Write a sequence for this structure.
């Protein structure tokens, strides 16, 4: 299965400059948002974790950084869980025992694991790297969006949609994984459209490990490609299958698309082994049907 249906056409050289501008704008705006969010806490990066002093991991955070900025319990947010994962990336330490619904939290641990690698065992550096990864991800996501848009015949300035996304800017201020998801989504689509199957496979796998629903992305691409082949290219299949290069490319495409779901399944089985419970079984109330979150938000706003 090749990437023919989503292949982007060549883009002019100036597009790379537009992509760079979009990336810079995304990083700058996200950085400003993060700086504003931590202003009440003397600009401490740890404030973006949104950990309260009553959280189970708070004692360890205070021990690692006596000046750690805690927020009121009502302001607690999910950056706390990614902080815990960054301190205990494979649930072999103590932090995984100090958070609620730990199996579910570790089901999408990749953001925290990246931070664990970058912080190199220095717990006081975790808040810095949580923000740094998000800022870098914003830039990558904006650049990828610009390049993809140009390749599909849209304006390369479409990359500014990332820089101006309220949801992504907010995620940067609370150390959650959405910016990394956007970056990995952009990288996976960019690699797929350019027929770089190995990078695409790596990006699909990392994307699924960052947020479990993102394992549906390669599935959707695969379905799109199958429909395209059936509608436009099915008459070429007999001749194509007799070509070894076509077969290798088709098999490589299927393997690249399967990487995300397969790697995620392997990780979830590991998490189940560690915690003794299937991760998604602890997601009650946290995962809903498509658009249910939008409906709930509108109902809350109306009330």
């Amino acid at each position: 299965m090749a990437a023919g249906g989503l292949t982007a056409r060549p883009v002019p050289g100036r597009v790379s400059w537009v992509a760079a501008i979009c990336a810079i704008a995304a990083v700058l705006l996200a950085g400003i948002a993060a700086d504003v969010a931590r202003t009440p806490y003397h600009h401490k990066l740890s404030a973006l974790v949104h950990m309260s002093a009553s959280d189970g991991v708070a004692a360890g955070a205070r021990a690692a950084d006596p000046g750690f900025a805690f927020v009121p319990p009502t302001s607690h947010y999910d950056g706390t869980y990614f902080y815990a994962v960054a301190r205990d990336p494979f649930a072999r330490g103590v932090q995984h025992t100090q958070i609620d619904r730990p199996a579910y939290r570790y089901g999408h641990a990749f953001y925290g694991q990246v931070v664990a690698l970058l912080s190199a065992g220095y717990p006081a550096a975790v808040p810095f790297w949580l923000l740094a990864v998000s800022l870098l991800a914003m830039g990558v996501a904006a650049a990828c969006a610009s390049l993809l848009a140009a390749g599909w015949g849209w304006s390369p300035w479409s990359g500014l949609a990332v820089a101006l996304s309220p949801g992504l800017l907010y995620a940067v201020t609370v150390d959650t994984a959405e910016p990394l998801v956007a970056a990995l989504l952009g990288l996976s689509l960019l690699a797929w459209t350019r027929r770089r199957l190995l990078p695409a496979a790596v990006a699909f796998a990392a994307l699924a490990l960052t947020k479990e629903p993102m394992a549906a992305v390669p599935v959707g691409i695969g379905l799109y490609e199958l429909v395209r082949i059936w509608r436009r290219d099915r008459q070429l299949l007999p001749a194509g299958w007799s070509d070894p290069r076509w077969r290798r490319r088709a098999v490589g495409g299927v393997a690249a698309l399967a990487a995300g779901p397969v790697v995620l399944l392997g990780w979830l089985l590991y998490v189940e082994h560690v915690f003794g419970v299937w991760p998604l079984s602890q997601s009650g109330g946290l995962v809903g049907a498509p658009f249910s979150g939008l409906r709930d938000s509108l109902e809350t706003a109306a009330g």
Notes: The mean pLDDT is 91. The two ends are 50 Å apart (CA to CA). The CA atoms of residues 226 and 295 lie 33 Å apart. The longest helix spans residues 244-275.
